[in-house]
Amino acid sequence: MSLTENLMIEIDGLVKTFTSAGGPSTVLKNVSLTIDEGEIFGIIGRSGAGKSTLVRCINLLERPTAGRVMVGGKEVSALSGADLRAARRGIGMIFQHFNLLSSRTVYDNAAMPLELAGMSKAEIRREVLPLLDLVGLSDKLGYYPAELSGGQKQRVGIARALASKPKVLLCDEATSALDPETTQSILALLRDINHSLNLTIVLITHEMPVIKAICDRVAVLDHGEIVEQGPVFDVFTSPRAEVTRSFVRDVIDRPLPSHLAERLKQDAPVDSNVVLRIIFTGPSAETPVIADVIRHYEVMFNILQANVEYIQAEPYGNIVVEAIGAPQAVQEAIDYIRSKDLRVEVLGHVADTRRAVA
Amino acid sequence: MSPILVGLLLNGLQETCFMVAVSAALASIAGVPLGVILVVTDRGHILENLPVNRVLGAIVNATRSTPFIILMIAIIPLTRLIIGTSIGTEAATVPLTIAAAPFVARLAEASLREVDPGLIEAAQAMGATPMQIILKFLLPEARPGIIAGITITVVSLIGYSAMAGAVGGGGLGDLGIRYGYQRFQPDVMLAVVVVLIILVQAVQSLGDWIARRLNKRLIRSKS
Questions:
Q1: B21-40 pLDDT, tens per residue?
Q2: Are A243 and A218 in contact (CB under 8 A)?
Q3: Which residues from chain B sit within 8 angstroms of residue A145, using beta carbons?
Q4: Which of A14, A39, A295, B112 could join A67 via S-S bond, C-beta 3.0 to 4.6 A?
Q5: Tell me: the pLDDT tens digits for A258-276?
Q6: Is residue A93 domain-shared with residue A218, that is, in the same domain?
Q7: Chain B residue closest to A105 (CA)?
């Protein structure tokens, strides 16, 4: 993480209302957020949550109905005409469907922003060739977009967005049209340029794995409002809003296998064992808490499911166990685990499967 | 075929080609910008201006719905003003141009509307001016379609020019009517029709070839 104290983007009280035949509809309701220089900031939401509109308000492709948008200390929402066009040159953008000119080659597509700025052919060449090298397309200069794969097209899009040396890169569902493998390579490229150019990246997506892979902080947008925001690790490991929980569940809180879920009862019949979900985060994931419990209490754990994810290089462990022992001992064990800053959740009870032993 | 007939045919072909070439060129010069204006002034586009859009649209429709033969006669005063006479191949280019320009405009408009709105958004995000968006994004992307539209216009103009011949415009149509119909020489009529078929085929093939060459949307394997 290359976080600095400098604010790059500041959105304050943003409202966007569209008027259509069916009457006005407010797509963004009082959205405020700040994004630091050099940060990769993710905005996640379901389709229709307003995230596309939000990112378009940053470079004023959509003009806010109310509120203020500051980029690099300049109030872009107050600009128009030539001033706005100049400000836009400092904000690169890449798109879900790439939006390349089909009539231009890879080189000429990447050169476009510089051509628009009136640079000479020689200057353009000096700028564009290293960029196409950076995105790994040096051998495809004369190809037309129709001859490229989706990932290659997005690389052209990235080179083009970087040509005018922007401070900010807006990514509008930039990987949503790509297969998972290509998505990873594009995300790796974005992370590289974030580091090497100290580029601030604002990334909107509906895919939590994308956020998990590269974002420093994330905001969750739902029905035009930011319902949650913070460092990606925190939002992942302790989601508060329902929509966030549903996003996170897809990625880390795997549902219980169906045969286990069916056996799970909320009341506690005789001869049953309690099923616990234990969540390890941060440093606690690296201490042998489970082993301690088994050594000190009259409890045994039967592991039903276990999973460790790394988010922003921090471990996040999630295990589901059947705790076998006297109710008193199990409660003591739970208290002990909680005292070690681990989260314990009682999922329910299952009938004791070791009847033969009992 | 008698040498006289061959001479007449060549002369008629030359006159037809002149009328069609001049009017197609002028109609394209006027029609393509008109098509651009029809697109960019429409609702939600880069230079939205609904009054201009609606007025131009109405003029284009009015011109296109007037039968060519009536249009040609109706604008005789204008033709006289520009060319000095209303008879002959030069004079015929005026109504032909006026009839073809709105046709080109509508065909160009259709091609320009096909350009992905995402591309215009990308252009705006790059800080392109409206003029740059038109010249560097809209027109190059719509070019294959515009060329195809101009090809259709040229073919239509060959037909229209025959009508112009009926009122003293010269050309192949004039030849066909005067010799073939009025002097009962069906062989001349047939020869004229054959020459016109060959001409239309040639124009269409050339237009298709150019449009295909300019269209980079089709994948050609390079690897």
A1: 999 999 999 999 999 999 99
A2: no
A3: 216
A4: A14
A5: 877 888 887 777 778 889 9
A6: yes
A7: B216
